[in-house]
Amino acid sequence: MSDGAATHCPYCALQCAMTLTVPEVQPASAVPAAAAPARPEAPLEVAGRDFPTNRGGLCRKGWTSASLLEHPGRVTEPLLRGPDGVHRPVSWDTALELTAAAVKNTRAAYGPDAVGVFGGGGLTNEKAYQLGKFARLALGTSRIDYNGRFCMSAAAAAGMRAFGLDRGLPFPLADLGSASTVLLLGSNVAETMPPFVQHLQGARDAGGLIVVDPRRSATAAFTADGGGLHLQPLPGTDLALLLGLAHVVIHEDLTDGAYIAERTTGYPALVRSVGPYWPERVQSLTGVPAGLVRDTARRLAEGARQGGSYILTGRGVEQHVDGTDTATAAINLALLLGLPGSARSGYGTLTGQGNGQGGREHGQKADQLPGYRKITDPAARAHVAGVWGVPESSIPGPGVPAVELLKSLGRPHGVRCLFVHGANVAVSAPDANAVIAGLRSLDFLVVCDFFMSETAAEADLVLPVTQWAEEEGTLTNLEGRVLRRRRAITPPPGVRSELWIMTRLAALLDAPSAFSEDPETVFEELRLASAGGLADYSGIDYALLDRGEEAYWPYPAGSSGTPRLFLDSFAHPDGRAVFTPVAPRRRTLPVAAGGADPAGTPMTLITGRLLEHYQSGVQTRRVAALAAAQPEARLQIHPAAAAAQGIAEGDVVAVANGRGEVLCRAELSAGIRPETVFLPFHFPGWESANRLTEAATDPVSGMPEFKTSKVWLRPAAAGSRVEAVQAEVLQMDGAS
Fold first, then answer.
1. Residue 311: phi, psi to the nearest 5?
2. Is the pLDDT of residue 591 over 90?
3. Measuring CA to CA, which residue among 272, 274, 273 is closest to residue 246?
4. 331 φ, ψ to 5°?
5. Which of 239, 201, 191, 241 is CA-nearest to residue 223?
């Protein structure tokens, strides 16, 4: 057995450390070394590795991650869709020539912005960086964005607004262990990143874990037996709840007055803005008892004075049309208590995707250049142009955020030729039916993936790319810590890295500047491009990471990095954090009720994740153990609401609105609010939750509204399509 590759899990942003080992299937002396197979004959062995985030632990997804490397559905050669709709193998030369021709023809007919790029938060830093450069220089387009817009954009915009800098956790995750109070809003970490839960144990032991969630989730259940509090608001009312908490902190004189005076601006306006949100009014808006609102505020203040308090937000409070304002309200509350920049307290947001942090820092976002630089900033443009060796004028201006980009597909003055890297928008994007129609209206769609995802199935050309254990690179975890991904095995013969693909296409398109297929070479250029930016990586190199040194950005050359941000000042020019008054907008929200009206009162749909699956499920639905544990989407519904509509446990239910319809089985649970239903978003086709979600977006961040879709329920006909759809999915998987 080999010594193994020390790397990190390919899934969430916790980036649990693991070791991958190639098993020995026969004695080494039996076969000459030169005859050894390039790839193992048995699956890689996965072992948890001690690391501050996971402390040796892994979740089910991590333990089974290596099984996909040898999956029979793996795409291992370029596939071109024929006139009959069937994908057939072609050579790499043919694939690249067709792609370059499609780009040239599109640009000639419609202009460079008719070519678009949709990236992913799972790409390495090197791929994310070079993809942004490729889009702007090789394709000449401004139309690039990525699926992190669905994940981190609201919290990122709020962080920039308040602090002048966006890093998910501005402190090491291990700091949470010493806290006596943790307020966790809109995140079910017990299922989405299970090893995270151990960092909440200290707060739970002190009775100070406070979880805000409309469901009695696995994380909310962790507050039982004296562990803390579970606040169960109506979906979409988190902003009002946070304003109520701020009201109590101010009017009960629980603020940190010295901190506010010395380290913030905008306090008087904030005081006026929260005046209308006294606890009893907040109770009427949110359904959370006024006593719990007061208890939560007091507990946070006590923790800040004595044992440390942290406020953490997740997608549940951010994936709304007012997500930026809601995250801002959480930051305002933290500032009132003096938490950000404290040695033992803080505010943070939980990044979801594996490289959700690094993926948004170096050029995939429509409005950013490497180093978290604004693309409209003349100095930023000049710096990056100098690194790339091109005139500043050759870098396009800002593009459009993801939802707007997808809405433009195939439309006049929209995108006609699209590249998709590391994303499955046919399942993950809001209003998925409209997105699929947009994909089908394109002149040319290129998808880079290692499986025939639902988006790849719509492509004119599918390009097979490396999986995580077959490549070198770096990622940045939820703490802003840069990590090394190390190759354990060689990829199949027909598979290429996205870096290789971009380099070859850049040459065919006569792109200015240099492109490289070598990850370390690309990282060295990234260091230069990021130097002096907010997300400065210039002091980090592969040698430092390979020595196991901590590398938290910003890490300017000559420094030792920044594990804890804001200890001395914030990133605004005056060094102060900014209070920004916010208030709920006028929109239709659910009304608290004892049950659903059988005559057809709409329910509020919230979407989310399951323990066994990840993102759109392209990978985890292909892992036998995970698929067996959660083979289908199930609609969680309160028993009273189910009874009112004639729905029993296990019944097939039609869930519909004006955007689409979903068929799934009912799962009755008293742990969800009666006017609310929950559906996981990992499944495709007739089980796809995003057929129902709205493509309305936050005006500040571009975040879509995933959490408060209005839906109507009815029992479906006996023998409905759920089983048939599952059979179709399995058939497609086997054929790929």
1. -115, 125
2. no
3. 274
4. -65, -40
5. 201
Question: Rounded to the nearest 5°, which phi and psi values hold at 421?
Answer: -125, 120
Does the reported pTM lie above 0.85?
yes
Retrieve residue 275's tokens: 């005046």
Helix (H, G, I), strand (E, B) or coil at 523: helix
Q: What DSSP character marks residue 401?
A: -
123: tokens are: 């790409």
Q: What angle do CA 720, 721, 722 make, to 5 degrees?
A: 100
When pLDDT is cut at 50, 70 and 90, the band that residue 34 belongs to is very low
* Amino acid identity, position 124: T
Asked if 461 and 99 touch (Cβ cutoff 8 Å), the reply is yes
User: Which two tokens mark 475?
Assistant: 């990622």
Confidence class for position 696, pLDDT limits 50, 70, 90 = very high
* Rg of the chain, C-alpha, whole Å: 25
Instruction: For residue range 148-167, list pLDDT tens digits in order.
Output: 999 989 999 999 999 999 99
The average confidence (pLDDT) of the chain is 93
Confidence of residue 585 (pLDDT cuts 50, 70, 90): confident
Distance, CA of 591 to CA of 683 (rounded, Å): 29
Structure tokens at 184: 């966790």
Res 354 pLDDT > 80: yes
Roughly how many angstroms between the first and final C-alpha of the chain, as a whole number?
32
* 8-state DSSP, 74: B
| CA–CA distance, 460 with 441 (Å, rounded to integer) | 11
2-29: pLDDT as tens digits: 568 999 999 999 999 999 998 875 554 4
Is pLDDT of 590 > 60?
no
- Contacts of 173-177 with C-beta under 8 Å, sequence gap 24+, read 173/52, 173/53, 173/199, 173/478, 173/479, 174/52, 174/53, 174/199, 175/310, 175/344, 175/346, 175/564, 176/200, 176/202, 176/203, 176/310, 177/201, 177/202
Give counts: helices (H), strands (E), the chain. 24, 29
- The residue count of the chain comes to 736
What the block records as the tokens of 278 is 């006294």
Give 701-716 as a DSSP string. T--EE-S-EEEEEEEP
Do 363 and 139 contact (CB within 8 A), yes or no?
no
